[in-house]
Automatic annotation (TrEMBL):
<feature type="active site" description="Nucleophile">
    <location>
        <position position="213"/>
    </location>
</feature>
<keyword id="KW-0460">Magnesium</keyword>
<dbReference type="GO" id="GO:0006564">
    <property type="term" value="P:L-serine biosynthetic process"/>
</dbReference>
<keyword id="KW-0028">Amino-acid biosynthesis</keyword>
<protein>
    <recommendedName>
        <fullName>phosphoserine phosphatase</fullName>
        <ecNumber>3.1.3.3</ecNumber>
    </recommendedName>
</protein>
<keyword id="KW-0479">Metal-binding</keyword>
<comment type="pathway">
    <text>Amino-acid biosynthesis; L-serine biosynthesis; L-serine from 3-phospho-D-glycerate: step 3/3.</text>
</comment>
<dbReference type="InterPro" id="IPR036412">
    <property type="entry name" value="HAD-like_sf"/>
</dbReference>
<feature type="domain" description="Phosphoserine phosphatase ACT">
    <location>
        <begin position="126"/>
        <end position="198"/>
    </location>
</feature>
<dbReference type="InterPro" id="IPR049148">
    <property type="entry name" value="PSP_ACT"/>
</dbReference>
<feature type="compositionally biased region" description="Low complexity">
    <location>
        <begin position="11"/>
        <end position="20"/>
    </location>
</feature>
<dbReference type="GO" id="GO:0005737">
    <property type="term" value="C:cytoplasm"/>
</dbReference>
<dbReference type="GO" id="GO:0000287">
    <property type="term" value="F:magnesium ion binding"/>
</dbReference>
<comment type="similarity">
    <text>Belongs to the HAD-like hydrolase superfamily. SerB family.</text>
</comment>
<dbReference type="Pfam" id="PF13740">
    <property type="entry name" value="ACT_6"/>
</dbReference>
<dbReference type="Pfam" id="PF21086">
    <property type="entry name" value="ACT_PSP_2"/>
</dbReference>
<keyword id="KW-0718">Serine biosynthesis</keyword>
Length: 423
């Protein structure tokens, strides 16, 4: 026998009463919202008992905007029609005037009995995140125009952060996901702002594991380029690296070619390069914040374990996967040991780490910049192309072109205040 109560429904004879929208605007101060609802609770002549149907409130730089949809409590019998609605609105008008006089705000009353054509919108709503340093008005205008162009409506806007990047989150309804991403991608390319799109729902805040590429993502620059410079082969290796990252050359083949140029380097060079690594701005903030929120954090790199393992240990990461350089007699042989962590290998590493911690792939995040990251980015619940090559930006779930790695937190929906609270 089920213990769940049966769903409550109004009596079959109950007729829906009129509805009204009260819009409160003015200088914000304590007690305005309380005064309004106290007046509604007390009622006034001409107003039947009311119910609160919807409430939205926001304060922008000390200016209050409060919207309240009220409905008269349904009663048995036929609806009263236009005369009932007119009396309802008139009564609320008198009440609004009293609240306005007592608080110094403006209170407007209008009919909400007909919600209009935009009230019922198909499809799942989405969050659209705009990021920039700063966010230009043209980016907001372009995003709003693109959203409307694919049948979407902006239901709400809130600021997520003002440092190190400015970011805003738009809640959008009525737009199909692929069309929305395509339209906003064109706006991002044309304005230079970053625009990310995520579906509204529990999945967004259920992320529990993140993997980061290392070279040009977690750290600035490419480790193998630094090693090649010490071997006197920098230009040759840079050309191979660029071709591989742009997807023009098989990664495993390019890796073997680049590692081959390192033959004869003393193993101590690895320590020198590691000591001179420079973390990407915001990297520590991103990792520290996610760790305090309970995330499992790790790195998956096409680089070398002799570099990434100590780096992961210094950051307190949960896991690391990378290639291993072969060493003999204190020198690099120009070869590799064990399985190569290439494009497919990165995706396998993500799946392995997630399985080890009992975390479904749709609750994972991957961040990278190169073509060899694409399988990993697409396997994750959210794949973020960070300052990536064009081929990667086009295929990842979303892209960030800001110089700060902690901008990933805004894509995940965290505000600047929440980030500071987690420090």
């Amino acid at each position: 026998m089920s213990l769940d109560p049966a769903p409550r429904t109004p009596p079959a004879t109950a007729a829906p009463g009129p509805r009204a929208l009260l819009t409160v605007t003015g200088a914000d101060r304590p007690g305005v919202t309380a005064r309004l609802f106290a007046a509604l609770a007390e009622g006034t002549d001409g107003i039947p008992p009311v119910e609160v149907v919807d409430v939205e409130q926001v304060v922008v730089h000390g200016h209050l905007v409060l919207g309240v949809v009220l409905g008269s409590v349904p009663v048995e019998g036929p609806a009263g029609g236009a005369a009932e609605e007119a009396a309802f609105l008139a009564g609320l008008g008198r009440l609004a005037a009293g609240v306005a006089a007592a608080t110094g705000v403006q209170v407007e009353v209008e009919s909400a009995s007909d919600p209009g054509p935009g009230a019922a919108r198909g499809g799942r709503p989405h969050h659209v995140i705009l990021l920039g340093r700063p966010v230009p008005p043209g980016a907001v205008a372009g995003a709003a125009t693109a959203i409307a162009g694919v049948g979407g409506n902006i239901d709400a806007i809130r600021r997520l952060s003002d440092y190190p990047v400015t970011s805003f989150e738009l809640t959008v309804s009525g737009a199909e996901a692929t069309a929305l991403r395509t339209a906003l991608g064109a706006v991002a390319a044309g304005t230079g702002a970053d625009i990310a799109v995520e579906q509204v729902g529990l999945a967004r805040r259920s992320k529990r594991l993140i993997v980061l590429d290392v070279d040009s993502t977690l750290v600035r620059g490419e480790v193998i380029d630094e090693l090649a410079a010490r071997a006197g082969r920098a230009a040759e290796v840079a050309r191979i690296t660029a071709a591989a990252m742009n997807g023009e050359l098989d990664f495993a083949e390019s890796l073997r070619a680049r590692v081959g140029t390192l033959a004869g380097l003393p193993v101590e060079v690895l320590d020198e390069v590691r000591e001179h690594l420079e973390l990407t701005p915001g990297a520590r903030t991103l990792i520290r914040t996610l760790q305090r929120l309970g995330f499992r954090c790790g790195v998956v790199s096409g680089g070398f374990s002799q570099i990434t393992d100590p780096l992961a240990a210094s950051l307190g990461l949960d896991f690391a996967a990378a290639n291993t350089l072969e060493v003999a007699d204190g020198k690099l042989t120009g070869g590799l040991v064990g399985e190569i962590v290439d494009r497919a290998g990165k995706a396998r590493a993500l799946a392995r780490f997630a399985a080890e911690h009992g975390i479904p792939l749709d609750q994972t995040v991957a961040v990278g910049d190169g073509a060899n990251d694409l399988d990993m980015l697409n396997a994750a619940g959210l794949g973020i192309a960070f300052n990536a090559k064009p081929v990667v930006r086009e295929q990842a779930h979303t892209a960030l072109n800001q110089p700060y790695l902690d901008a990933v937190l805004q894509v995940l929906g965290f505000t600047r205040d929440e980030v500071l609270e987690a420090q």
